[in-house]
Write a structure and sequence with these properties.
protein serine/threonine kinase activity; alpha/beta; five-stranded antiparallel sheet; 12 strands; 2 domains; kinase; 23% strand; elongated; Heat Shock Protein 90; Rossmann fold; 321 residues; single chain; seven-stranded mixed sheet; 9 helices
Length: 321
């Protein structure tokens, strides 16, 4: 099938045979067209696809999805880097079979992976790449399967068929829905209250925030490499708060069973430039004058949430313990 422009499809399968029906033709078409082929799928599906492809499997790069789908922003960064490298290497397009890992996730984490799937439509909108995302209906919750129809413009059917999803939602609308769901979850959660450490900061006095973040992370036995990631992410976010949030703010640090959390709050940016549509989620152009800060913060953090506005902004950085 000859296609131009970015293609993003969901493949809902309920049997091994259905997985192969939805992927084999896709791979063979890509190989005939000279596309680069990357399959990031579950281990069992790697075996199925290798066996079915036979000698042609040598032309496909296979990666176990457990080694790739750790955290949404870093996964998007990996795909972006992979596709960019193949473009520079002369590939006509990159075809990806990308199977996210949904099991073992919290409600918060599942929502961020749903957001990720929607954001792919923005991140690769100007590319000619093709991403096919398998969803195993035998093991995944109905909510995950249902949401696939909202985050993928097309649904792959059988060996070569497709349907346009009548439930697809524009990424901006889906992103806003995720934000609202997180806001409701935050409001119903127990406040850190007296269990958090608060460190005021202001222009010219950011070292105190870096020192507190370092002590906090090391005191909770975070690996040294991740300590440095946390400190850099906090520092970059503090600088943004100073630049756009009135020159001062507060850093709050606390622990939860699964994550260390760093919250940076400021008093708002008034009439300073508007908030970007998808702050820090999309890789900036290499020569762009701005937009790198929050992208770097998302790459260093495991998860990040933000509420950015003229009357006050709150950014939370999550680092798995």
């Amino acid at each position: 099938m000859t296609r131009t422009g970015f293609v993003h499809q969901a493949l809902c399968y309920g049997a091994d045979e259905e997985f192969l029906e939805g992927t084999l033709g896709y791979v063979h078409e890509g190989l005939e067209a000279g596309d680069a082929l990357l399959a990031v799928v579950a281990g069992d599906n790697i075996g199925l696809l290798r066996d079915a492809l036979g000698g042609a499997a040598r032309e496909v790069e296979f990666i176990d999805c457990l080694d790739w789908y750790h955290y949404p922003s870093r996964t998007l960064g990996r795909y972006h880097a992979y596709c960019t490298a193949r473009e520079r290497g002369g590939a006509r397009r990159v075809r990806v079979i990308g199977e996210p890992v949904w099991t073992g996730r919290t409600t918060f984490e599942v929502r961020e992976w749903m957001r990720y799937e929607s954001l792919l439509n923005v991140a690769f909108a100007d590319s000619g790449h093709w991403i096919l995302c398998p969803y195993d209906t035998r093991v995944l919750p109905d909510e995950v399967i249902s949401t696939a129809r909202r985050t993928h413009p097309e649904l792959a059917v059988g060996e070569s068929g497709l349907l346009h999803s009548d439930r697809y939602e524009p990424p901006a609308d889906f992103y806003a829905e995720c934000d609202e769901a997180e806001r409701e979850l935050d409001e119903s959660a127990v406040s850190p209250g007296g269990t958090s450490t608060e460190i005021p900061f202001e222009r010219g006095r950011t070292a105190v925030a870096r020192a507190a973040a370092t002590e906090f992370a090391r005191g909770r036995a975070l690996a040294e490499g991740r300590v440095q990631d946390l400190v850099v992410a906090v520092h970059e976010t503090v600088l943004n708060a100073i630049r756009f949030g009135g020159g001062r703010g507060v850093l709050r640090l606390w622990s939860e069973p699964e994550y260390l959390i760093c919250e940076i709050a400021d008093g708002g940016y008034g009439s300073v430039p508007r908030v970007p549509a998808f702050p820090g989620h999309l890789p900036p152009a290499p020569r762009a004058a701005s937009g790198h800060g929050l992208w770097i913060v998302r790459q260093l953090s495991d998860l990040m949430t933000e509420r950015l506005g003229p009357d006050g902004s709150v950014v939370r950085l999550y680092f798995r313990r």
